[in-house]
Amino acid sequence: MPPELVEGRVRFRYAAADPSVTAVSLDCDRAVAGPRAFAADDGGWALDLPVPALDRVEYRFSLERADGDELVLDPDNPCTVPTAFGDRSVLELPGYEAPRWLEAPAVEGTTTSMALAGETADEVPVDVWAPADLAPDEPAPLLLVHDGPEYDRLAAITRFSGAHVAAGLLPPHRVALTHPVLRDAWYSGSPQYLRTVADAGLERLGERFALERPVVVLGASLGGLTALLLGLLAAPRVGGVVAQSGSFFQVRHDDSESGFPWFGRISRSVQAVLDMRHAEHPLVVGMTCGALEENAANNRDMASALTRAGHDVRYREVADLHNYTAWRDALDPTLTDVLRTVWSSGGDAR
């Protein structure tokens, strides 16, 4: 049966249909407190966990056999979700609701593919979504999204835009979905990547499409770090940033990440932002992060530092973890508020 709540605990079960299975454990984010090893139970396996302070939990079962381990979905739970690392079973706890805009009417869109060339050895591919009735020469605001294809496939970002345009909550706008060709190298404070997008990239987008009002940049994890660094570099052409679970690595908080090849460059870039005392071109900054994430401490530090420097910061913690569904669910109201604030302020993107 699917996981069930039993006296303040979540009970997971795995039926022992395969006698070669010698042990079962729960594979999920380490922020979920409690044991991982199942105990033999009535011909199968069972595990009780304290109910986590979360709206939902993504998980798999790890099956141990003599010939090796296997990660599988929960065969008794029909609720699954695609992730950047494959499908996961999902436990949705009482009170969880998916965003209403997922099922709301949305304008139809069209997509144009192009590439941005600059200082990076590889061009940056971009898919630009727009409402079907928005001509290329018709001025409209732009939302630029790092990890664009993943944000669209796993967090429905163009569906978000289409639904909010249809409801009259946002003006017709374009969404530039950038591809992470060399993600770790590009999204780790690479000066070449940042200058490619901030300079030649925005110029190329402005040549291909009529842009108005400042650009807003969105990203998550390393993409959230990159969104903020790009916004700081390209202001005032960029007027707003939304960073979700940003990887704002600091030595004092993130020693577990120190083996990442680009940790030093990231931590130096982050420290430079934390040390800023004055923003020449203040940004509107939206930030979301799971309250139980490892990233929560460095996100709180970054929100405080940006506020001290004079940026308009809206920081919100959510009851989920480091995954695209969490980022999708947190788009509204944070992204909506940033877009409306920036795009109502006037100015242009040139």
From TrEMBL:
Transmembrane segments: none annotated. InterPro entries: AB_hydrolase_fold, Esterase-like, Mycobacterial_A85_antigen. This is Enterochelin esterase family protein.
